[in-house]
Amino acid sequence: MPKTQPAKVRAKKIKLLLFDVDGVLTDGKVYIFPAPAGFQASTEDPAAKHNAGGFGVVSQSLIESKGFHAHDGTAISFARIAGIQTGLITKRISETVALRARDLKIKHVFQGIQDKGSVFQEILRQEGLDANQAAFVGDDVMDLPVMRNCGLAIAVANARAEVKAEAHYVTPHAGGEGALRDAIEYILKAQGRWKQVLNDYISERSPKKSGA
What we know:
This protein is α/β, with parallel strands linked by helices and 212 residues long. Helix content is 37%, strand content 16%. The protein has nine helices and eight strands. The protein has helices spanning 7-11, 44-48, 70-82, 95-104, 116-127, 144-147, 161-165, 179-190, 194-205, and strands at residues 16-19, 31-34, 62-65, 85-90, 108-111, 134-138, 152-155, 169-170. The strands form two sheets. A six-stranded parallel β-sheet has the order 5-4-1-6-7-8, sandwiched between helices. Strand 4 (85-90), helix 4 and strand 5 form a beta-alpha-beta unit. Helix 3 (70-82) packs parallel to helix 8 and helix 3 (70-82) crosses helix 9 (194-205). It is globular and about 50 Å long.
């Protein structure tokens, strides 16, 4: 990937932040547990479209579990305040991811995706944005088709060497340990908006009482 522009210059243009899940929002580990009685997966229909392995566990008896970092959740709130849209594109289909995405109000949620590049182009069309206005955070070679075509390619600290080699920026923290927080802070600081967003976030959660 040509790196003719410094990463901070690229970050100033970002209006859309997309990311992988396993190895980015999580540490890449997948845990399988018995499902509670009466469990009905909302991801069952999307999973039925895939016959090949590696797309996740969707059954009435098992449930896939992942761990998410609270700092990343807070960072998505920062992005929302700044008017930066967020979205995830992942190959695996997970009920846990669906729940987390709803909890964080992530706008674009695409699970069961092998061709991430085509989905990336579709999201750009939906948002009316150019590729140079989008960033992508990845960790493995499946993320390269998007990283090679977006404005700001970000690799997490635990990314494979091939991915780091093509990234404009590598986060200090690993996936599942606050890497997405690093990415969002980097973008907001490059845009000169970090302090204002931080103050707005705090004000939302600590409103001044009338008469105080």
